[in-house]
Amino acid sequence: MNPTLPDVIERAAASDPARFGYRFLDRHENPTWVPLADLRQRVATTASALHDQGIRAGDRVAIVLPTCPEFLDLFFAAQWIGAIPVALYPPVRLGRLEEYHARAASMLRAVGAAALYTDSRIGRVLGETIVQYRPRLGFRDVKGLRSGSPCDAMPSAADEIAMIQFSSGTTTDPKPVALTHAQMLANAERITASVFAASRPFEELVPSGVSWLPLYHDMGLVGCLLPALLGPGPLTLIPPELFLARPSVWLRAISRYRATTSPAPNFAYSLCVDRIRDDEMDGCDLSCWRLAMNGAEPLSARTIRRFEERFARWGFRNDAMMPVYGLSEATLAVTFTRPGTGWKSLRLDARLLGRGIARPLGARDSNATKEPACGATDEPGSGVSEWVSCGAPLPGFALEIRSDGGEVLGERRVGRIHVRGPSVMKGYYGRSDAPICAGWLDTGDLGFLDGGELYVTGRAKDMLVLRGQNHAPQDLERAVDAVSGVRTGCAAAVADLHADGETLVLFVEAREPHEELEAECREAVLAACGVAPDDVVVLAPGTLPRTSSGKIRRSETLRLWKEGSLDPPDAVGLRTIASAMLRSAAGYLRSRAGAGGGSA
């Protein structure tokens, strides 16, 4: 019989409590160790409390928690009794609470959550969410869930739903992705195999991981939490907000605990280069870091090179960077760069790429020091763009690049990326609009294959078609990163269709707006990409709408702007926080009647 996640937890109970487990760091970088050998008792006790509170097999259990041991207890406890955990992101942008409440309530409604579990700190601001969606069994605090007696796991099948995770919602509202035990384990096992494969040539190193990625996100949950449960080695977990405030905590943890694996989105590597001081790296040794996985958002060759150059002095290896590609509809991972080989890129004729043809001007390995072939250059106006390989499909996965009409395209032709594999979802929960046909998932992403490796060029719905030429919005957005006053990574390029035709609108957040900012942004985009924005809209920091994982929602930006409601977030101070808590408390009290009598 195929295993389920409760079966894996049962096996984990036999592991060495000193070697295998989860280490949680607090804001002072002090560790709390949770051995896998103790996990079964913790989960079984929490599961018993859930059952006593009315949770039954098939119920959807919403979890809104920070990175903490209670998240593990609750997530696996729901599965222990056949319920379905649904991890949602906590409210992190206090200036955007109204937007958060509407979005969270919509997600709770989409899955029909029976209860929402949180802690007292987050619960203070969730009352308005509960007003908009009232769970049948209420709004409950995780405190006290481990005060009872443990229970045995309820029998379940590998093809039953084990989790619902939401898609990122970059171009549409987040959709509930239903995943089975078999799908989750199939993906985690392939990630684990890659970790082991990378460790074999370095027997002096024990496989271990460090992650600051949020546990409500597939990269943190499936990519980090589950492989550690399967047994490669210990996992050190850092609160995401701590990493964002002090990125050096991440690299220090890798050095301190001799981690071999640690993944992150592209922006994290850039943040480290820009925000970490040399003195914060005193005593660090990153030579243990063999797998620096880079995924979840568009990859930048420039960012990767800057990171390698900046941290080489502390032992970061030039073969450690490992670009990957995946998506929530496939559970997570789809393609990996082969461990230990380093990353590579292709430099392409940008004008031909706009017509769907990926013609290299000279392939260049990231570690090479020689000049690019064919005189290719990244100078503005050169007509050259550089794209990073995301590697080849994992075992059991297949890729096809197809035209809009469904024709399978050859190598170096840009089209829609289609994926087939053992962890691809069967559908969205409660919906019939899954983009799947004959087992093939239309990812909505654009890309091409070269030598069997995948290069991702953008999202189909975000692609800009200007005067007959295709343009990836991220190319235009990166062009303004160097403009004085513009916040790096805080721009959105969109095409506005109207009766008189199509115009290019560029939104930029600026820390220090100045009179020439709009003109300088327009000139930077024209020089780099050959097109000039018709409108440059300068915004206050934090104005651009984002997904729960921090990606900018371009189409939502345009919609809000056209409605006249693209406003900066409310200023966050003691008065704002107190007001939000009072409204939340009032909302919670109003919702108690008929909400099942839960408490938080």
Q: In terms of topology, how is this protein built?
A:
Blueprint: H1 5-12, E1 21-25, E2 31-35, H2 36-52, E3 60-63, H3 69-80, E4 84-87, H4 97-111, E5 115-118, H5 120-123, H6 127-132, E6 139-141, E7 161-166, E8 176-180, H7 181-199, E9 209-211, H8 218-230, E10 235-237, H9 240-245, H10 248-256, H11 266-275, E11 292-294, H12 301-311, E12 321-326, E13 333-336, E14 344-349, H13 350-353, E15 360-365, E16 384-388, E17 392-393, E18 398-402, E19 415-420, E20 436-437, E21 440-450, E22 453-459, E23 464-466, E24 469-471, H14 473-479, E25 486-498, E26 501-510, H15 517-529, E27 535-539, H16 554-563, H17 574-591
Helix pairs in contact: 2-3, 7-8, 11-12, 14-15
Describe this structure in words.
With 600 residues, this protein is an alpha/beta fold. It has 3 domains: 38-156, Rossmann fold (3-Layer(aba) Sandwich); 183-343 and 389-461, 3-Layer(aba) Sandwich (Rossmann fold); 476-563, ANL, C-terminal domain (GMP Synthetase, Chain A, domain 3, 2-Layer Sandwich). It has 17 helices and 27 strands. The strands form 8 sheets. Strands 18, 19, 20, 21 and 22 form a 5-stranded antiparallel beta sheet that branches. The chain has a 4-stranded mixed beta sheet with strand order 2-1-10-9, with helices on both faces. It is globular, with a radius of gyration of 24 Å. It starts with a helix and ends in a 9-residue tail after the last helix. 52% of the residues are buried. Mean pLDDT is 87; it is low at 363-382 and 593-599.
